[in-house]
Amino acid sequence: MTTFSMYSASIPVFKQILNSLLAILDKAETHAAEKKIDPNALLQYRLFPDMLPFTRQIQIACDFSKGAAARLGGLDVPSYEDTETSFAELKARIAKTLAYIDSVPASAIEGSETRAITTGSGEKTKHFTGQTYLFHYALPHFFFHATTAYDILRHNGLEVGKKDFIGTY
């Protein structure tokens, strides 16, 4: 019988998809150059007017992964400014996020299933246990924004498929 691991259910999953996004960003940058597309046409693209643009989707995916690592590890969530305006800057943000989540010891995350976790403030305050937070809040939000970023690029002609999104594990 194996035991459940909060670390294994979180950090490797975030790393897998963030690394996939890094590879997809490389492809998007190449695609824009080869097709002579202004990078901002992709970076600021929205699937629908009331949705956030590509750049913001990447920023939020990073925020949910670093936030989950910190909260599950009982640490303060690091704050990143949302100033990225290029593929290179988005790749740097993902790299910084990967470095941060790698710095959170597995031992700090293990056993966090029942840790009290609070997000937001004021009317937007939400209270969770660690396991509920991970499975019903952090991971769904992370995957939504990562998938939306992928979908924006795919919609704009980037030749990527499911394997590019899933990456290697």
Description:
- This protein has 169 residues and is mostly helical.
- Helix content is 59%, strand content 5%.
- It has helices spanning 11-34, 39-43, 54-72, 87-103, 106-109, 130-155, 162-166, and strands at residues 116-119, 126-129.
- A hairpin with a 6-residue loop joins strand 1 and strand 2 (126-129).
- 33% of the residues are buried.
Q: How many domains in all?
A: 1
Q: CATH topology, which one?
A: Four Helix Bundle (Hemerythrin (Met), subunit A)
Would you tell me the structural class of the helices and strands?
mainly alpha
Strand tally:
2
Mean pLDDT equals 96
Separation of the first and last Cα atoms: 23 Å
Main beta sheet: 2 strands, antiparallel
CATH architect. name: Up-down Bundle
CATH superfamily: dinb family like domain
Strand order of the largest sheet: 1-2
Q: Please tell me what the overall shape is.
A: globular
Tell me the series of helices and strands, N- to C-terminal: HHHHHEEHH
Strand content: under 5%
| Proportion in helices | 55-70%
- Which stretches of 5+ consecutive residues score pLDDT under 50? none
| CATH class descriptor | Mainly Alpha
Number of helices: 7
Q: Taking Cα atoms only, what radius of gyration do you get, to the nearest Å? A: 16 Å
